[in-house]
Write a structure and sequence with these properties.
Bound molecules: [cytidine-5'-phosphate] glycerylphosphoric acid ester
Low-confidence stretches: none
Number of helices: 6
Number of strands: 5
Radius of gyration: 18 Å
Order of helices and strands: HEHEHHEHEEH
Mean pLDDT: 92
Distance between the termini: 75 Å
Strand order of the largest sheet: 3-2-1-4-5
Helix content: 25-40%
Length: about 150
């Protein structure tokens, strides 16, 4: 007969969470949202934006996709990393990975409510005082103040 649509019993009680991001110049705001999401589920899948998708988002990144994905997948709180290549892959990801919960920082509040019929959608407060843009600003400031001696080839 038809395979039961229900997941096997042993899987049924494992809640799966998913979140998405660029995670460029990985910082404490990224770590905190991943750890807070993992605290709400048993298994965390993270969609890391590819370089091509970031171009679509109008985002220039300092760190290439492979390295951003490697850093995120090395985290204890992350179980799986998938590439995020388009805005409209979330529905398929949720189905394919049997996702129970989608979490995003609240700068995205409301943007993914259309997925609420597929899984729970939660927006968590962003970590204040940190962003990739601010980090870039610190580096520019340090460079301007001569913090980095220019090493010329001997
Ligand atoms: N974040 C946070 N606190 C910060 C900075 C970021 O909680 N100080 C969260 C964001 O809200 C997001 C996640 O960290 O949920 C990743 O942030 P970005 O790498 O900036 O990702 P973004 O460009 O918002 O891409 O399809 C969704 C997009 O891929 C999200």
């Amino acid at each position: 007969g038809l395979r039961s649509r229900r997941r096997p019993a042993e899987e049924a009680d494992v809640t799966v969470g998913i979140t998405y991001g660029t995670f460029d110049l990985f910082h404490i705001g990224h770590l905190r949202i991943l750890e807070r999401t993992r605290a709400l589920c048993d298994r965390l899948v993270v969609g890391v934006s590819t370089d091509e998708f970031n171009a679509l988002k109008g985002k220039r990144t300092a760190v290439p996709f492979h390295d951003r994905a490697s850093i995120v997948s090395a985290l204890r709180c992350v179980d799986e990393v998938i590439p995020e290549e388009s805005w409209d892959q979330k529905q398929g990801d949720i189905t394919r990975h049997s996702v129970d919960l989608l979490v995003m920082g609240d700068d995205w509040r409301g943007k993914f409510d259309d997925l609420a019929d597929l899984c729970e959608v939660v927006y968590l407060p962003r970590t204040p005082g940190i962003s990739t843009t601010e980090l870039r600003g610190h580096v520019v400031e340090l460079t301007a103040n001569g913090a980095f001696a220019v090493v010329t080839q001997g």
